[in-house]
Specification:
Layout: E1 5-11, H1 18-26, E2 33-40, H2 46-51, E3 58-63, H3 69-79, E4 84-87, E5 93-94, H4 98-109, E6 113-122, E7 130-131, H5 132-136, E8 144-146, H6 148-153, E9 170-172, H7 173-178, H8 191-201, E10 206-218, H9 229-243, H10 246-249, H11 252-279, H12 283-292, H13 296-317
Parallel strand pairs: 1-2, 1-4, 2-3, 6-10
Antiparallel strand pairs: 4-9, 5-10, 6-7, 6-9, 8-10
Helix pairs in contact: 9-11, 11-12, 11-13
Length: 337
């Protein structure tokens, strides 16, 4: 008998976190599961920690070299046998009832995808500081269905919104197989958002449960702390690719939403192409980018008040987390690498 849920965990150099992640999956109130861990060429003890679990529901797959989270996740998808597939990052964890609650809701709503709110917790903290929905400023009191236009419109880079691209849905595996959906291995950042887009463009019924059961950890070394330039370039490329699809071109509302997202990516790309060289004291590079991107000053002025407030918080008030995920939700498209 196949498991009800396949939990897939791509992992790379997370020896300090992965045991908690695996344990949270094995301690689910829904027992009929399998946990597939793909070690993506870790150089620390991640693989050894994964192999230390004697539970027969655990399967460990090894990539001999680091191939990236998308490749690792696709390998786990090919091995999965469950009716549902649940992604779990190797530094995050589940509340014990998560899978049971979401599967029951998925069956009740005839969903192809279902996600919950996320607890947002900083590395080393005892309790979450907020949730994804709370940070959006929106109020959602009951389960809602998300269509592709709403999904895109509420997840614009650098702007307030629900950002459901950060959520961790359960996917009906039959839906993924029937439509040949897998992670794009050319995208190394923000894979969740783009996989969700692939499902929604194929007509997936996507529901959101407003209660949080997923603990989403921010930590030093994750992508939120790295240069946004590679991420923004990939987002531009992926958005352009979606906009070339005939099914998208026939949906004016979706085209407009994607166009708005693309404009936001390009605006931020132009801004950071100047700011990052300035921070690195590469003055000639910064000047060259300013000449190429005259709109930089308009973007800088629009951000000026926020920049000053952050500096006051950091240097005067002593709030050292002001540049953390709690103030930069839009930047965190996490990756197991």
């Amino acid at each position: 008998m196949n498991p009800k849920v396949s939990v897939i965990i791509p992992a790379y150099n997370t020896e300090a976190y992965i045991a908690k992640s695996i344990k949270s999956a094995l301690e689910q109130t829904l027992k009929n599961i399998e946990v597939i861990i793909v070690d993506d060429g870790s150089s620390d003890q991640t693989l050894e920690v994964a192999k230390s679990f004697a539970d027969q529901r655990v399967k460990v797959i090894v990539n001999q070299e680091n191939l990236g989270a998308s490749v690792a996740r696709n390998r786990a998808l090919r091995a999965a046998q469950g009716e549902w597939v649940a992604v779990l990052d190797s530094d995050d964890w589940y509340a014990p009832e998560r899978l049971e609650k979401l599967v029951l809701l998925a069956e009740k709503t005839n969903a192809d995808m279902i996600a919950d709110d996320l607890y947002l917790i900083k590395d080393g903290a005892i309790s979450p500081w907020s949730t994804l929905i709370q940070e959006s400023g929106e109020r959602i009191d009951e389960i809602i269905q998300i269509d592709i236009v709403y999904f895109v419109e509420t997840d614009v880079y650098g702007q307030p919104g629900l950002h459901f691209g950060l959520s961790k849905p359960l996917f009906k595996r039959e839906f993924l197989l029937n439509h040949g959906i897998k992670y794009d291995e050319d995208i190394t950042m923000g894979q969740d958002f783009w996989l969700d887009m692939k499902c929604l463009i194929k007509g997936a019924r996507f529901f959101i449960e407003p209660k949080p059961y997923y603990f989403y950890r921010s930590r030093p070394g994750s992508l939120v702390y790295q240069s946004p330039l590679p991420r923004l370039n990939q987002y531009c490329k992926a958005t352009n690719s979606f906009m070339q699809q005939d099914v998208v071109k026939k949906n004016p509302a979706l085209m407009q939403a994607l166009y708005n997202n693309l404009a936001a990516y390009k605006k931020n790309l132009a801004y950071f192409q100047v700011v990052i060289p300035i921070k690195q004291r590469k003055w000639l590079t910064a000047l060259t980018e300013i000449m190429k991107n005259p709109h930089f000053f308009f973007v800088f002025i629009s951000r000026f008040n926020k920049i000053i407030k952050r500096r006051i918080q950091y240097y005067i008030i002593g709030n050292k987390s002001v540049f953390d995920i709690s103030y930069n939700l839009h930047k965190k498209r996490k990756n197991s690498n």
